[in-house]
Amino acid sequence: MDVFIQEHDLLLNYNFKSWHEIIFNMVKSNTMKALGIILIIVGILMFVFPKLTVSSKEKVADVGPVEINKKENHTVDWPTYAAGIAVVAGIVVLLIDRRKA
């Protein structure tokens, strides 16, 4: 009876370990694939939109019914080589993920 229980426990532990490895590898593979695709999309968007302009509105004065607001534009520029690096990094991540699979 003890031998059966020990063998049964070994089988359960082995199956649990293999399921754990399978799930971990699937999540890791999907994460790498998603990261590669996101890097490529972000790189392409950086090529298309080389600068990003955001406007902010700030209240300067509030005197009775009169309200004075100040609108300010903030521009963020990034170099085009950063976009190229993002695209190349995304392709490399996808290739590494494909080779491991």
What portion of the residues fall into strands of 2 or more residues?
15-25%
Give the helix/strand class: alpha+beta
**SSE succession:** HEEH
End-to-end separation? 42 Å
Spans where pLDDT lies below 50 across 5 or more residues: 1-11
Structure description:
The protein is an alpha+beta fold. It has one domain. The chain is 67% helix and 25% strand. The chain contains two helices and two strands. The chain has helices spanning 2-48, 80-100; strands spanning 51-63, 66-77. A two-stranded antiparallel ribbon has the order 1-2. Strand 1 (51-63) and strand 2 (66-77) form a beta hairpin. The longest helix has 47 residues, at 2-48. 7% of the residues are buried. The model is unreliable at 1-11 (pLDDT under 50).
